[in-house]
Amino acid sequence: MNKKTLIWHELIGLKVKIKRSSHPELVGIEGYIIDETKNTLTIVGEKVWIIPKNVAEFEFEVGDKKIVIDGKELIGRPEMRLKKRWKR
């Protein structure tokens, strides 16, 4: 899995960390994704956070790889984003 293919996969259950954000208090939040909507990711770690996708850069841990993706690339309903895979 790489940066291009990660956006087509299910994100729920992946370990994630916020690397950059336009809201400084969000930087460093890490945990597991438990829910995804069109514009947000719900992350559980020390507590539960609902993070807007368009304000953050996420680092996903997939196996032994770390993949950094701008949240703007993830905007959209999860099921529609997954369907786009088959149109390309």
Q: What report would you give on this structure?
A:
The chain is 16% helix and 42% strand. The chain has 88 residues and is an alpha+beta fold. The protein has a single domain, classed as Ribonuclease P/MRP, subunit p29 (SH3 type barrels), CATH 2.30.30.210. A six-stranded antiparallel beta sheet has the order 4-3-2-1-5-6, with no helix packed on it. A hairpin with a 2-residue loop joins β5 (56-62) and β6. The two termini are 17 Å apart.
List the defining traits of the structure above.
single chain; 88 residues; alpha+beta; SH3 type barrels; 2 helices; 42% strand
Helical content stands at 10-25%
The CATH architecture name reads: Roll
- Distance between the ends: 17 Å
Overall 3D form: globular
Secondary-structure-based class equals: alpha+beta
pLDDT < 50 runs, ≥5 residues: none
The biggest sheet amounts to: 6 strands, antiparallel
* Count of domain modules: 1
Oligomer: single chain
CATH classification class:
Mainly Beta
The SSE string, one letter per element, is HEEEEEEH
What integer is the average pLDDT?
88
